[in-house]
Specification:
The protein is built from 15 helices and seven strands. It is α/β, with parallel strands linked by helices and 300 residues long. Helix 3 runs antiparallel to helix 4 and helix 11 packs across helix 12. It is globular and about 70 Å long.
Length: 300
Amino acid sequence: MTTTETLTTIDLDAAYRESNVQQLLDELDRELIGLTPVKTRIREIASLLLVARLREQMGLSTEPPTLHMSFTGQPGTGKTSVAMRMAKILHHLGYVRKGHMVVATRDDLVGQYVGHTAPKTKEMLKKATGGVLFIDEAYYLYRPENERDYGQEAIEMLLQAMENQRGDLVVILAGYKDRMATFFQANPGFHSRIAHHIDFPDYTLEELMQIAEMMVFQQNYAFDAASRQAFHEYLALRMMQPHFSNARSVRNALDRIKLRQANRLVRAGGAVSKAELMRIDAADVRQSRVFQGGIDQPAG
């Protein structure tokens, strides 16, 4: 290959392999059930960033890509998990130095008195530099009904950092879709700095069952046919109740089921096999208040 050819061609397949992005995307597919539109959008963003980096290497003038993002959806739909993987993708493509993620809420950024907010926000920005600052329930930063609230100071500092440090800091705002829309209307500076708005759909019943099966397997437990059917019925009922949080509610339900299983085994006493230590019984599931029309709680 001549020097001219070297300067005018780049092997996209080789560049993609060298970035290790495909491995990260494959992990995303394996470890997170469903979320097909989210995964598709993440792949598209990864392709955009790879091509932008290659254009830069070829000496083509290009605007630096805007990397700040907004993730919207109900609790437990995988927003934090996807953000962690996004941080790794950005690192592998050379857009951030470290690829770590710092999670922050209003309490981490906003102070209680004059002069308290700036150092708190600066500290979180410092921790996140070189990676991703993930701000969960970002709309709580803005409280216009309270004239003495210091959230606006944090917002202004974040906006400044998103502009001035965008070569080594990516901010991802997350929360409910409707509340985030209101937040962006009240703070247009955020909306103008965010290029990628990704909505996370609720999981279907069958996807939640797959998530449950994966969690049970990873924790060395096992459903039998009866307990699997019982948990399927449990989810169908729980999904119709208030405060259902998708995969988070599945995890919480399994924690309560393990509690009931442990108490059942201890009450029975005597010798117990490895298989019985692993097995979830239908009774462990059906003791939930959900089957009597109540809300599943830690004691139930």
